Structures are given as C-alpha cells and as structure tokens.
Q: What sequence folds into this?
C-alpha cells in the first residue's frame, strides 16, 4: 500500500496538532440555581430597559444611540418588537425630512447604518451634504472622530454603484488610522475594533463580549444596560458551556481522535464557535450543537480526501457514501466534489478558474451545514429547504464569499505540501499573474461579494424566515473572523479563534 500511495497521491501529507482545549469543557455541569438567579435578575432589569425604550424620543440621537447600544451589547433579542417599532418610526422621519435637515455626521452615519442593518433601503445621498463640489468629503471633518467612525461603519453596508460610500471608505480609513495612536479609551477601543472588524461584518456575540468591556469605560454609559448585558452574557456562557460539555462527551464516545490523528483536524470547539456565530440566542441550542457536529465530521471527510486517501480509496469512499441511504444528498454531492479536487491535485491537472470555483462552492459546505441543523429551527418548513436548494443568489453569494476568504489563507503553504493545489494557483496560471496580484484580485472579490450580499440583504424580499437570512449573513461574518488577515484560524486557532473561545466559553464577565 505504501508504494501505491506514492504513485497515486502526493507523497507528503500535512500533520495537525491536537485540540488546544483537551478536556476543558467535558466536566462542566450546569447549575440550575445559578441560572435561575441570573434569569430573575435579567427579567427585572429588562423591565427597566423596556421603559427606557418606550420613553425614548424618536428624533435626534437619543433613540438610535439607545438601540445601537442594546444591539451591540447582545441584548436585542429581548426587545425585538420594541426595537422594530422604534426603527420604523425613525425610518419614516429619516425618509421625510430628518436626514435633509440634520447636519451632524455622527447621527446621519449611525442612523443610516442601523436602518440598512434592519433592511431599510435608505439612500446614501444623505451623505452628499458632507462633500465639496469635487465630490470629496470635506477635510474640515477630520477632527470629528465620532463622525468619521460612524461614516466608516455606514460605508461597510454599501451596495453596488454607491460611489459616495466608496469615497467614504477611502476618506475615513486613513484618517482613523492616523488619529488612533492619539486617542484615549473608550473611543480608541471603538476605532481600533472597527478597523479590525466593522460592526456589520462582525460576529454579533463576539462583538457583544468585546463591547461590554468598551462600554463600561464610557462615562455616558447606562448602568442598567451595562449590568443587564453582563448578567445576560454570563447566563449565555453557562448555556454554551453546557452545550460544549454535551459535545465533548459525544466526541469522546465516538473515539475518533486517536484513529484520525495526526492527518485530520480535531477542532470540535472551533466548530462550535461557528454554531454560536450563526445564532447565539438561548433558543438555538440544537442549532449550535448540530452545526458543531456536522462541521467536525465534514472537516474529517475533507482531510481524508486532502490528506490521506489514495485516488482508488477516494473513489471507493465516494461510492460508499453515495450508496448509503441514510445520507442526505448534500453530503454525497460534497464527497464527489472532494473526490474531483483530489484528482486534480494528484494528477497535477490545473482546471480553469471557473471550473475550480464551481466545484469549490460545493466544498465550502454551506448546504451541508445549513441542512444539518434545520430540525433546531422551528420556523423552517419544506418551502424553506426548497428555497435554499434552488440556489438563490444570496445563497450562492454566501458560498462564494466563504471560498474567497478561505483562499486568502496565507498559512496554507506552512501547513500543506507544495504540491497541494489551490484556486489561487488556477487563477495565477490562467491569467499569468504573480501570487501578490492574485491576492489583490481575491481581496477585490471579497469587497464585491460584500456588495452583492448587502444588495440582497437591503433590496430583496424573500419568502423565508428572517432567521435564515440572518444566518447567511452570519456565515460570511464568521468566515471573515476565522480567516482574518489571511490566517487560517480553524486549522491554527492559537492566535485567531483561541482568544475568542476563551472570552466566550471560559472567562465570565465580572459583574
């Protein structure tokens, strides 16, 4: 068999280290009394917060600052009805005369972003008043850091053809980077985080954990909201620990770790962070667990094709999966896509960029991951599944963006052998460009992808549950976080996902 391996697959294989987390979560036991104490305190504070929402005026900064704070602290799911009512009222005023008469960049920027995040298609022309006759933003605004920050954040929910927001990114980014060293907390923390992950592109629960630390430094903070956010986060963290404990026991019972090491990645906890990214609210426990299980198993299948099987074994494995009646069609489709990839790699046959990408959209696992946890989403119907499988543009865009981020992985050459082909190689060969030129192109594809996704989010009406659309957006968000700055935070979680896992699942917030 050794001789066969050398002939029909690359002679060198990647090896992966064990999980960083060992048995960290397996022994956790949820204390119901602690959770009940949290729940009672949360309910009391929710009443106070709800009164603040009701009392807030619908004009000026007050209501949008309050809503933004609630959302960024991870509390919005407690006040969905109230927030939607206030946002609608604000939108009606914004459309009529508010944006026209308001001269404050902070308010216009924040209002615009919130409305678009709530799927109101407001016009970016509201920023025209801040530009000069040459259609450049006025340099007099460079000292308005809060205004610049909100313009920057607003620009990251732009759609195609919005030159004014393209200019906004080009204007705000260098100015915010320039002033950052001179700033003091909490505005310094806000700017630093925005430059790393604009709020529209960030994972909500990660941002909530980080924003709690930023918000408590703010002299204008609302103590009720701050305390509510801290208690709420600790309540959620206990739920996550309990889910991780269940997952850890499931994984141990399967007893695959010793059999698969070192050729396959043991990244169950990193998979779970994807589930939490999809839906962090308490009622989605089944979803989070299903996402983690399906993603870990798919990861093993991926590594088996990429890193272990010969061509003959891969073909046989694909045929076995195809014949198993219990497997959903998406898993079978995924197996054949991996099989096709392996043939290209072993035979050193570079396909066209378009052909590789068509196949790699399947290997991004969107369909497998989404269909695996549908039982945990009460609003999902057969019509929802049919819609997903009909390949609407928002789903294809989501899958492609996952691929773009993955293909920007700069750690790839450090982990995998040089003969392992990537889509980057296909692009370089087909277009006769350098790796740096290919990287620049993929960064451009990421930005175009976000505009595609934002266009679908803001301008289209879909007859599917809102939570499905939110999940598609969150899929892209967690992909960006995982592959931040060209690092593979899934394969090598120490620097990228590791700190987030500690913050979300290990360290409670001090109340």
A:
């Amino acid at each position: 068999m050794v001789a066969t391996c050398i002939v029909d697959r690359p002679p060198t294989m990647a090896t992966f280290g064990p999980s960083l987390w060992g048995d960290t979560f397996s022994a956790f036991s949820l204390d119901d009394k602690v959770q009940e104490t949290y729940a009672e305190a949360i309910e009391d504070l929710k009443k106070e917060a709800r009164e603040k929402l009701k009392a807030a005026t619908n004009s000026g900064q007050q209501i949008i600052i309050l809503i933004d704070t609630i959302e960024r602290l991870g509390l919005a799911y407690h006040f969905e009805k109230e927030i939607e009512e206030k946002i609608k009222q604000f939108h009606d005023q914004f459309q009529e005369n508010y944006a026209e008469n308001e001269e404050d960049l902070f308010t216009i920027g924040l209002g615009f972003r919130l409305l678009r995040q709530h799927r109101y298609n407001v016009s970016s022309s509201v920023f025209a008043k801040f530009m000069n006759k040459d259609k450049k933003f006025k340099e007099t605004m460079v000292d308005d850091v809060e205004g610049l920050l909100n313009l920057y954040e607003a620009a990251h929910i732009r759609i195609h053809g919005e030159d004014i927001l393209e200019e906004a990114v080009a204007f705000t980014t260098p100015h915010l980077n320039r002033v950052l060293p001179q700033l003091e907390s909490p505005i310094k923390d806000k700017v630093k985080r925005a430059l790393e992950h604009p709020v529209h592109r960030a994972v909500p629960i990660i941002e909530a954990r980080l924003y709690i630390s930023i918000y408590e430094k703010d002299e204008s903070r609302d103590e009720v909201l701050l305390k509510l956010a801290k208690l709420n986060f600790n309540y959620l963290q206990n739920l996550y620990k309990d889910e991780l404990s269940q997952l850890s026991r499931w994984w141990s019972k399967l007893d695959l770790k010793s059999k698969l090491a070192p050729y396959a990645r043991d990244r169950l906890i990193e998979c779970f962070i994807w589930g939490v990214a999809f839906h962090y609210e308490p009622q989605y426990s089944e979803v989070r667990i299903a996402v983690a299980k399906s993603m870990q198993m798919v990861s093993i299948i991926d590594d088996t094709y990429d890193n272990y099987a010969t061509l003959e074994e891969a073909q046989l494995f694909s045929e076995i999966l195809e014949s198993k009646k219990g497997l959903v069609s998406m898993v079978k489709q995924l197996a054949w896509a991996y099989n096709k990839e392996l043939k290209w790699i072993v035979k050193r046959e570079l396909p066209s960029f378009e052909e590789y990408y068509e196949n790699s959209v399947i290997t991004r696992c969107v369909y497998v991951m989404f269909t695996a946890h549908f039982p945990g989403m009460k609003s999902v119907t057969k019509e929802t599944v049919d819609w997903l499988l009909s390949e609407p543009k928002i789903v294809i865009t989501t899958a492609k963006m996952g691929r773009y981020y993955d293909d920007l992985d700069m750690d790839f050459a450090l982990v995998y052998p040089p003969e392992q082909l990537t889509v980057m190689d296909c692009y370089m060969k087909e277009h006769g460009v350098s790796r740096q030129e290919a990287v620049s192109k993929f960064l451009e594809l990421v930005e175009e992808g976000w505009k595609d996704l934002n266009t679908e989010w803001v301008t289209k009406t879909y007859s599917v549950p809102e939570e499905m659309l939110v999940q598609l957006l969150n899929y892209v968000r967690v992909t960006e976080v995982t592959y931040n700055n060209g690092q593979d935070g899934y394969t090598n979680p120490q620097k990228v996902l590791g700190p987030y896992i500690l913050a979300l699942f290990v360290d409670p917030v001090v109340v």
